[in-house]
Amino acid sequence: MDYVNAFWVGGLICVVGQILIDKTKLTPARILTTYVVLGVILGAVGWYEPIVEFAGAGASVPLSGFGYTISKGIKEAVHLSGALGIFTGAVTAAAAGITAALIFSFAAALITRSSDKS
Question: What is the value of pTM for the model shown?
Answer without folding.
Answer: 0.76
